[in-house]
Write a structure and sequence with these properties.
Elements (H helix, E strand, L loop, with lengths): L5 E3 L2 E4 L15 E4 L5 H10 L6 E5 L6 H4 L9 H18 L4 E8 L14 E8 L4 E3 L14 H4 L7 E2 L5 E5 L12 E3 L8 E8 L1
Parallel strand pairs: 2-3
Antiparallel strand pairs: 1-2, 3-9, 4-5, 5-11, 6-9, 6-11, 7-8, 7-10
Amino acid sequence: MNSLLEVVESFRISCQKEVLNEIHKKGVNIAIWKRKPSKNILSYLDSIARDKHFSLEIDSKDLKQMETILPKSNTVSNLEFAKEIKKLSIIYENITNQKEHTIQITTVDKMQCPLFHVDFLAYRMMCTYTGPGTQWIPNSNADRSHLGCGRNNHLIQDFSLIRETENFDVILMKGDLHPDDPKNGCIHKSPEVFLTPRVFLKIDAS
């Protein structure tokens, strides 16, 4: 894992969490904080994600009750994952100034959105814990005039340059409604899911 800051076009990648603040720069539409996986969190998620329909939506005002809101496991404590959610919620709030937000934890066993798209909001934070990560492309590899046309091959110039986040990467993306950088939302989509269910966290403004 490279500890140096990677600066290329519309994105920023680093092993330092401060990289997420780069999202404020005009032209930058995705910042990625690379982290090492936590064995305790993976064990906990494995124990509860066996139910392929497991999902949970939490309002930011309920963070203090996180340990009681999260499902219990017979074998693994939920405390570390509760701390993880609180930490990412605080980071999201501090960077975006969006105090009221919603945290969703979802388990899926199939692709949710096959088309590359942008979100119609200001910010979105995501972290995939198991399974394939979010796929995205830098601005230089896209013809944004074809957004919403329903065909990835019209939008993407070089499919070999599609990027995919790794497990435990924290990504903060701009959407097209960002007030200071409008119509520069990160172009992304959900990945194909095969053998391993995908468990991910998503934070949006309420």
